[in-house]
Amino acid sequence: TPKDRILLETDAPFLAPLDKKGAICQPHFITQTGKFLQDTYQIDLAIILSNTLRVFPEFQKVLE
Length: 64
Known about the structure:
Elements: H1 30-41, H2 45-55, H3 60-63
């Protein structure tokens, strides 16, 4: 997947991070997913945020 198409979302209740395996996935776990992408694929989190805001511009107000 090209780096300009990677984004994060939280609509996967049964796909919690490995250290939370068996738990219902919570939106605040998204930081762990972002850290994994950053460490594993050397993707800058700013790029992921930019991609996410391009697809979901309404989230910009949450960041303000």
